[in-house]
Amino acid sequence: MKLKYIFTALVAALTLAVGCEDDIETYLDEVRVSSSYVAIPAAGGSQTITVNAKSDWSFGDIPEWVKVSPTTGVAGETEVTFKAEATTATKEAMLYLTCDGKSQIINILQQTKKVELEVTPLKKFLAAEVGPTVYRIAGTITHIQEISASYKNATLTISDDEGYSVYCYRFGPPSGKKIEDLGMEVGDFLTVEGQRGDYNGPQMAQGGVFVSLKKSLIKVDSVTVKMPETGEFGLYKEPLPLEGGQFKVHLTCKGDGISVVVPDEAKSWLSVNAIETSGNSSIVTFSATANAMGDRTTVLTFNTTSGGTVNSAQANIDQKGAILQVTVGEFLKAAVSPAQYRLTGTVKKISVSEQYNNADITVADALGNSVLVHRMKPASGKITDLTIGVGDKLTVLGQRGEYNGTAQMVNGVYESHVHYIPATIKEFLAKEVSDVEYIVTGKIVNIKEISASFKNATLTIADDEGTTLYVFRMKAAEGGPAIENIGLKVGDVLTVIGKRGEFNGSAQMVNGYYVSHEAGSVDPEPEPGDNSYSIDLSYKLGANAYDDGVATINGQKDVKVLKIGTSSKVGDITITIPAGSKRAVFYAVAWKGKATTLEFSTGGVTTGSIDIKANDGAINNTPYTLTVSDSDKVNEGDKYEVVVPEALPTDMDFKITTASGKATRAIIFGLKAFKE
């Protein structure tokens, strides 16, 4: 009978979904085993594996020739022993370990004759189909991920001279041996048997078995680095400094000569200075240049030959880099690398793990770009002590990673954050003047100025009850559009962050900056005659224009008014008439004894003018006391109308200017627009 190894491929549905950094312990979350393959000698004997289950478990359909102890268990770790008597015929079985409705397959083999498999080239193994066929492969160990005494297996990577590599996942020792006693090291030549598997790429599947090990004729004993303080060489314990410098790789070599391989991508910053050999000891001296970029790493390979066979050893070298300050958008465009980035953004989503002392945080910039900071750790202490909240400004250090084609920050470490206290407009107004920053949302009811020159905006927001907050010189968000390009309009719902300030006894928000806004709508148009003196249109102050005045008009107190011009200088103001409007009305009076003319223009083109009458109450400083003619006949008295031929297709700005060569002061109020 031809000897067969039975390794059953795990069902695709039994995959474990994890983040890109997670270590995969098995393909089942409910139950984990140290090995899914058990080999018992023909002369009889036993083998023990470790079962790690989340709840009660049991074996089913155990054949008579193998004894299992115990056959059931509870949550936690349990040692399970498989035992068989001597046999003259090869026996094999497939046992099902069931936990929470999921089954882990354990393959049992008792063989009477060892059949030596031919070594399959790594290229051919990688091209093979996933399945139960067992292959023998061999190569130089280039990376060791884990040699686990607890799980009695090892995970590592082997490579051949053609540049092909195979990830060998959790293979076990031969019967009677301990995995940790095999002495596997990087550079050794390993032979291992197992099935072709696949998990995020080709690999040798769990359940493989160690065959043999040939110790390398070359070994890295240590790496030393020249200390700038003393000029002496000390043991390499942390990455090379940003400034660069010299380091030495100390080797034991029993082959014929040494050759050094520096990867192409590292040749720009690493060079070989000298190779010194004395007996079986060699020292290779390198120089590293200063690093103006992010963190970088490389793997140096040292080769020697004996009888035509190449033996290799490797040394991993890291160098600190400058921390690259980037926006979220710039980070997303960067390549996956060990470079270190400093990223600042607004927290949009946060999930804190007290158990693992980290947090998944999504941060965004002002342009709407967002990225997940995967498992950010605190610089020290507990993650819960940081009290990071949605809306806060977070700065974190980490590397550009990727998971399933989506960019993320990995190995992130908290650096700082600014915590913003959410507050309603009423709550904000009730606060004391301080340096505490609050995040406030309200509807824009007036825009005093949006200044491209000073890169800020001054406006008023209100809550649903009409309580208003004056936001003084709000700046654009860092990395976002200029304040004049955000597109803020009266009626929009604005979120802004700032401090409680005060001016002339009136509360206001200061040192604020824009967070976000949602398009809104202005309040329903008033009917003619209702609140006729209120200013219902958006406006921007121009030269020599002021909106800090109030007046008593025909007995109605505290009416907001706009003043344009001074005793000697013309003034101007720009009003925005909304799309769909057919006419606009307003009240205007000139200074006492000095009638004037208001000129209208749009897009730099003069469209008309209106003569306005002097008013005895327009004198001195605010507050004014005005008596105006509120005639229903437009353009009689102090009420005026601007009519357009057709309904405006878009919002349109009209500039109102006091005419030069005449009296230059006027007071305007009652600005409204109508669609009929």
Structural features, described:
With about 675 residues, the chain is mainly β. The protein has 6 domains: about 100 residues, Immunoglobulin-like; about 90 residues, Nucleic acid-binding proteins (OB fold (Dihydrolipoamide Acetyltransferase, E2P)); about 100 residues, Immunoglobulin-like, CATH 2.60.40; about 80 residues, Nucleic acid-binding proteins (OB fold (Dihydrolipoamide Acetyltransferase, E2P)), CATH 2.40.50; about 100 residues, OB fold (Dihydrolipoamide Acetyltransferase, E2P) (Beta Barrel); about 140 residues, Galactose-binding domain-like (Jelly Rolls, Sandwich). It is built from 3 helices and 46 strands. Strands 10, 11, 12, 13, 14 and 15 form a 6-stranded antiparallel β-sheet that branches. It has a 6-stranded mixed β-sheet with strand order 43-37-38-46-40-44, with no helix packed on it. Strand 13 and strand 14 form a beta hairpin. It is elongated, with a radius of gyration of 39 Å. The protein starts with about 30 loop residues before the first strand and ends with a strand.
Spans of at least 5 consecutive residues with low confidence: 1-26, 525-530
* Separation of the first and last Cα atoms: 98 Å
> Largest sheet, described in full?
6 strands, antiparallel
CATH superfamily of the largest domain: Galactose-binding domain-like
Supply the number of structural domains.
Answer: 6
Q: Please give the share of residues in helix.
A: under 10%
For the residues shown, what is the average pLDDT?
Answer: 86
CATH topology title of the largest domain: Jelly Rolls
Global morphology: elongated
Content-based structural category: mainly beta
What is the alpha-carbon Rg in Å?
Answer: 39 Å
Strand proportion, as a percent range, falls in: over 45%
- CATH structural architecture of the largest domain: Sandwich
